[in-house]
Amino acid sequence: MAFMKYLVPALAVAGAAVAQGDSCKGPKTIENPGDASALASCTTFEGDIEIAAKVPKGPITLEGIQEITGSLTCKGAQNLTSLAAPDLESIGDTFLLSGAIELRNLQFDSLTEVGALNFEALPNLQQLSFTKGVSKAKNIRISNTDLANLKGIALNTVGDMEISNNLHLKEADVAQITNVTGFASFSANHEELKISFPNLESALNMTFRNVSSVEIPSLKKTQGLLGFYSNFFEELAAPNLTSTGDLVFADNSELTNISLPILETVKGAFQIANNTELKAVDGVPKLKTVYGALDFTGSLEKVELPGLDEVRGEFNLQTTQEFNCDALQKEVGRVGDWVCKGKVANPQTKDGESGGNGKGNKPTGAAVPLNIPSGMTMMALIGGALGFAL
Ligand SMILES: *[C@@H]1O[C@H](CO)[C@@H](O)[C@H](O)[C@H]1NC(C)=O
Ligand SMILES: *[C@@H]1O[C@H](CO)[C@@H](O)[C@H](O)[C@H]1NC(C)=O
Ligand SMILES: *[C@@H]1O[C@H](CO)[C@@H](O)[C@H](O)[C@H]1NC(C)=O
Ligand SMILES: *[C@@H]1O[C@H](CO)[C@@H](O)[C@H](O)[C@H]1NC(C)=O
Ligand SMILES: *[C@@H]1O[C@H](CO)[C@@H](O)[C@H](O)[C@H]1NC(C)=O
Ligand SMILES: *[C@@H]1O[C@H](CO)[C@@H](O)[C@H](O)[C@H]1NC(C)=O
Ligand SMILES: *[C@@H]1O[C@H](CO)[C@@H](O)[C@H](O)[C@H]1NC(C)=O
């Protein structure tokens, strides 16, 4: 008889576990606040949770859940005003919020880990109430929101990071990030956006567009592109930078000073174009090798490259100002092909684009000569040179 006493509770526990197993497995769609409360006993939810587009006007709260192993997604929930998950610590896959045009409150007090975070078209979202701070995410994309800062994002490393079209975003203090293993891109946010990466040491690719300040004091290297387009700063300094892939400064209307005091190697093209106020390039004293083309156009008066031993691609310098090409040629070592012209009305980049004034453009990918046989390279370069002589 005694064993029955134990058996009953044991069965009851097993039964509860089964019940929890069923109701705590995805995919699950939440259509109203009641559907959300029904999940409150799930500490771990296995699979995906989707918040339906048709959720009624008002808040949705996911209480009790600590972990979602799959994704948490919400697309086109026009009437959702608030989304909260006070206990949720991690989302294994993607946290996607898109087109929640009335969403004003996003309260995730315990969240520290997401697979990927993708927020877009949230025009009324002014802050991320991630009280603990998201410290782990493979990729982050925040586009078309009303955020004024990125408080709540506290990553150490990140893969791809895209922050774009957030018209009120003025601060992006991503202080903890030491390593960007993918592509980081900032564009079309508030024009006073200041970006500070005080601890960033390495990145794969980075592009900065339309920003008013970029601080990268500890950046040592980028494997791929480091590009600055259509920015509003006067000075760009990267005091610890030694090596980049393509390096581009295009259409930065106020830029007067580029300071890269220990940059030695550009493993791609080095392009400077359409920076109307830039008169001198004298802040790259240690630059030794450029694997692609060196392509400087604009109204440059002074270019000093005292350490430059080799440009494997074309060397193209064209300026509207009077320019002493001979003096420069004595300074630099081997170059793939030499074009240097002062007093030209319409400076042309090595691909024959206008590079004196006006709008920026995408990099010209001049690392290409590395991938084709050297004979071909020479022919292509000669063709290019004839191209703009005609
Ligand atoms: C949002 O609410 C409005 C007004 O009640 C309704 O017409 C509309 O269909 C709702 N949107 C969605 C996606 O359910
Ligand atoms: C950055 O991450 C990449 C890829 O995970 C790794 O190879 C590299 O060593 C890391 N660099 C630093 C400085 O942590
Ligand atoms: C922002 O940058 C893009 C791409 O470089 C450029 O086309 C656009 O004109 C810039 N916008 C402003 C306001 O500078
Ligand atoms: C620059 O690099 C040096 C040598 O690696 C290091 O000691 C210094 O702390 C770095 N500066 C910054 C601002 O990270
Ligand atoms: C990094 O930039 C290079 C151009 O310099 C480009 O070819 C490559 O696709 C970029 N990589 C990523 C991951 O965006
Ligand atoms: C450019 O900036 C560097 C570093 O901030 C500074 O040392 C240098 O004097 C500046 N050059 C000019 C011409 O302003
Ligand atoms: C420079 O500006 C001109 C005129 O807007 C544009 O056609 C050209 O593509 C730009 N060149 C570069 C390299 O940004």
From TrEMBL:
Compartments where located: Secreted, Cell wall
Predominant subcellular localization, coarse grouping: secreted
Record's keyword annotation contains Nucleotidyltransferase: no
SUPFAM superfamilies: L domain-like (SSF52058)
Annotated keywords: Cell wall, Glycoprotein, Secreted, Signal
Biological process per Gene Ontology, one example term: fungal-type cell wall organization
Top-level taxon of origin: Eukaryota
Cleaved signal peptide residues: 1-19
Species for this entry: Helicocarpus griseus UAMH5409
Record region (Disordered): 346-366
GO cellular component: a single term: plasma membrane
InterPro entries given in the database record: CWI-Assembly_Regulator, LRR_5, Rcpt_L-dom_sf
Protein name, per record: Receptor L-domain domain-containing protein
